[in-house]
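yo

u said u wanted the structure for the complex thing, so here. seqs first:
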Amino acid sequence: MKKALVLFIMFVFASAAYADKPKFLEHRYEYKLEDVLKADKYEKKDRYWEAYIAGKLVGYIFLSKDWTAQHVGYSGKHMETLVGFDTKGAITGVKIVFHAEPIVLIGLKQDNYDNFIKQYIGKSVLQGMSVGNEIKMDAITGATVTAVVQNAIIAEGAKKVAASAGLIKYAAQQSHKISQKFEPLSWKELMDTGAMKNILITKEDVGQQGGKDPYIDLSFGLATPPAIGKNALGERTYAQLLQSLKEGDSAVFIFSNGPGSFKGSGFARGGVFERFHVEQDDRTYVFTDKDYIMFTELAANGAPTIKEGGIFIIRAKDFDQSKPFKLKLIISYRIGVDSKFKAAASDYKLPDKFMEQ
Amino acid sequence: MSLDRRKFLKYMGVAGAAAGASMLVSEGVKTKGKAAIGPTTAEAQTEAKEHRYEVKPGELDAYYGFWSGGHSGEVRIIGVPSMREIKRIPVFNIDVGTGYGVTNETKALLKGRFCGDTHHVHGSYNNGVYDGKYLFVNDKLNNRVARIRTDYMETDKIVDVPNIQGMHGLFTQRYPKTEWLVCNGEFQVPVPNTNPNQSPADYNGVHTIIDAEKMEIVCQILMDENMDLAATDYKGRYSMTTSYNPEKGVTVSEMLAFDEDFMLVFHWDRIRSALKDGKYKMVNGVKMLDGRAGKSDLTLRIPVPKNPHGINVSPDGKYAVCSGKVAPTCSVVEIDKIEDAFNGKIKPKECIVAQPFIGLGPLHTTYDGRGNAITSVFIDSTNVKWNIQKAIDNEKNPEEKKKNTHIVDVLDVTYQVGHIMATMAETKEADGQWLVSLNKFSKDRFLNVGPLKNECEQLVDITGDKLKLVHDSAAYIEPHDCIMVRRDIIEKHVKDRYNMFDNPLAVTKAGVERKGNKVTVKLTANAPVFGLSEVHLKKGEEVTVIVTNHDEISDLDHGFALSAYNINFVVAPFQTKSVTFTADKPGVYWAYCTNFCHALHLEMRMRFIIA
Ligand SMILES: [Cu+2]
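structre next:
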């Protein structure tokens, strides 16, 4: 026990050490609060500022590292961002304070990053912002991991601050325990329960010949309830998942067919899956290959062949499996030699059947 | 796949779009085509029409194949059924790519002996099936046993076995779990080997038992016979081996003198008691029991025809099959009769329940888990599939025996097979999916690559009655044997990064330390930089460089190579390695990263400035 503790402490120390990236890849910038929201008075609150003009509240400012430090980019470091928004939830300014993203290595300039960031002005915190929809990738094409993480940093931070300031109210929902009951289900029976949701992007959607044929036909569901996970993935893969789970972790499984890929190949070098993430209320969960178990086949009787499959573990205690969440997909594709992006999303709610009532 | 993939996808698409909810699978869509890829299930077996050996881009093999590398001294990982070589694990050899045999850690394993001859790779077991923890392999050349841990897929221990030569035949305990493993001495020698003038009549063979966890020798058993291949039973009672030279011959004709040689059985309970009772002599630091005929009750000699070779136990645990080599038959020994023979209730020969004709030169036998044996036949150059029960029944029916009705199919292989192995065949979960025939000659099967040619390994589909050859693959010097382990058994153990602090040398902060003439250069490697950009040394200093890879992302390895100093090694994520050398050449020497890591990989270098 003592030994384990010592190891743990050493590990924390080491984490700091290996994060020690060379200085030439790091960029730190001076900032003032007025860079993102002009006012004549700023009042410090808990982890954010209120901005006043002539005594009237005009908006809020926060530093991302106070809210979303868990989101790290390609560099393994958080991109510290200063964000301001007005009392209606419209973004008034965004400024990068620190980043170590190797965008220069893929031929981008700081200007490109700044242009990407500028898009946020005027966007609604309350409605949310996602890459591929409200936020375009054009300015930093190629830096997908950076873009996706940067967006999570801004959108999630702003939502959380807005909720703290009372601009957003989440409906209080009853949390339920996941049922540990197992009953064998065929693929069709499992489908009928609604335990899996689908996202379809057709060839037409991505400017290819082939009309309504799928470009990517993706399904996903919560993997943790035994009646879903064990049936869909099979006893062995499910047992492997359970071994990887720590207290409070959850997992989704995703699989697809069609020429498109939800995994992409960026994770092979950067470790981050940039083509999908999960959102619940104001929280965003991005996945890395440390929390990934590959699977290549479905186990349930009558299940189809799949082209790609992966189980992705959500290592966060604030994710509630019994509450609704969203899976967001940003598929990149090419028209000729130009990269394009297609975004899609699906809501998910675990059917009552898999919860203890 | 019997279902048109395109149609199927289309169907999925339409269903997927409907209601934005989930896919529906109609009654007609039952095919999965997954049998080829995944582990077999009863369901997949009944549904799969075509046994697919092609593994398409993005798909994974269903089996980890672990291959010995013969006199290359290594072990290889082959994906089955694609037969792609995925990795080479240096064991008794130097591997300049990874730095095995270059670093201090691996030099300590090899102790200066970097020639090796690996023959038999076997896994650790739990209740008759691999537990996926370790692999063990023998070195026939320098008489060593190495262990490979499967989490890192690297050699972690090597044990020297004294008092033997020509270490051949290695097998692990199958039940209840692998606590012991055994290996044989194929060449009889003086024991101890101190008198060069000793008469060959006084040479001995030795059977060795090793503790698998500690990697220490438990004991040895002194024999007159030589010992070739090895096996263990499925109840944890015996180790078994073939012996082709009880003659103690030292020339070929002398070794062929007897018409009958032996299958030898070692009785583990009696060995344990003998050890407890102190019935051993210490020879070269090892407890040596006496297993010679008439000297103890530890061993049993079952006579089998002239010069047998392989010994393989059927997956149901019932039979040990000795392949005849010089005799055209296999001897089927019923293992449950062995205890009676040990106790003198029956004659050793009465353990043999069948001796079917197989062909000219039967060498090794493997199993499909459905009651059939498949034997490699060297001279005929075939794989012969035969039914074990039929062979036993035919012993009482000479007419049938004469007609060889036990033989189900014969497959010609190209050319001249040595070992043969089916998927999971050395476990009680033999699944009868694939068989690999490790052939010794490859002429005309591949591009001509000069006088020294590759070996030819043939993949055979064994799911049907007939043996169906589906693929040839080339192998370099010179796999002898292999096992093919279901993917799920292994992959859950395999790690993507080291635990940094398992290694006390792990560098957390780069720097240089000096103690007299000794200099330690501690380096972190973090794409794309080493922790120091230059190091200043004096000519003649003894320098130890320690490198820790601080990149956590899996697959992000770094190399460390020092120009003109004959040093290179690779560190995987969170791994630490060290190397010691004398700075005997003054000047400026660049150290650089050899393993691609980053867009600025070429810039990942530093100077060693030696004055
Ligand atoms: Cu490198």
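Residues B 527, 558, 593, 597-598, 601, 604 surround copper (II) ion (CB under 6 Å). Chain A touches chain B through 54 residues (CB under 8 Å).
cya
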